[in-house]
Amino acid sequence: MKTKYILAATCAALAGFSSALAGGEGWSHDFDAAKKQAAGDKKDLLMDFTGSDWCGWCIKLNDEVFKHDAFKTGVKDKFVLVELDFPQDKSKLSEETQKQNEELQGKYAVQGFPTILLCDSEGKPFAKTGYQAGGPEKYVAHLDELRAKKVTRDKSFDEAAKAEGPAKAKALIAALKAMELEDETVSAFYPDVVEQIKAADPKDETGYAKELAAKEKFAAFEQELNGFARKQDHAGALAFVEKSAGDFEGEQKQQIVVTKAMIYAQMEKFDEAIKAVDEAKALAPESDMAARFDGFKKQLEAAKEKSKDKPKEGAKEEEAKEEAAE
Fold this sequence. Notes:
CATH superfamily of the largest domain: Glutaredoxin
Distance between the termini: 50 Å
Mean pLDDT: 89
CATH architecture of the largest domain: 3-Layer(aba) Sandwich
Low-confidence stretches: 1-21
Shape: globular
Structural class: alpha/beta
Helix content: 55-70%
CATH topology of the largest domain: Glutaredoxin
Strand content: 5-15%
Number of strands: 5
Strand order of the largest sheet: 1-3-2-4-5
Radius of gyration: 25 Å
Largest sheet: 5 strands, mixed
CATH class of the largest domain: Alpha Beta
């Protein structure tokens, strides 16, 4: 349930390539220098956004994978390693490095740690991952699978260069979808590709422009909804969601309706929340999100039963008045 109304985003150094604080030898903290090295050595970039002294999963990833020789050996011919640290102890990093890391966090829209981005030597991302259990050998194999996304991307770009019209647009769309990146990342790093798709398919035979417009519309919806969340205005949020639901369809409408259920739950209107969950499920019963609705409904039913044992606010006030009168 992706809506930001309920979910919040979770959870020096020296320049050069000689050492790193958490990852150990072989990691850089200088992004520009890392790009130059990657271009010269014909390698990709592995960017580790981490909180080295507070993020539990970051520490596990470092201890279980990055520190080991099997990892370093497995990636040395493929990646230039870049550690972008956000420690609580800021004395570990120079002001210059802190500024660089904050700028890169914004540029790459990183919201949680650890975030591992695989990028080409120009810094364009082609895959994203994080913590993976199983140790260094398994992680290296995982990275190799992700590198295949770049192969698919580049192959599709080559096909697009030889095509025209909707065929060109389809090849470019295939390149973007192969990477499975967030829409914000695509907009930030591949805007030229998006424009090429629109130019090659002005009648939108691929449906890409329609899909893109729908995503932009939903992003605007989320942004406005977050304004109600910041003010803790549940009634306003509920009215806005109910008003907006008719403007969307399919899984996007499903997300909006289940958001309504979440708002009702925060208001402790559990019957309305349960009804909204059923309504959301009926909109797209085969969606990935719908598969989680039964569990959510059980949680609401349990919360409803628990709420029966809580004295109502009116009853509390009446009881207080009686006690004062006595």
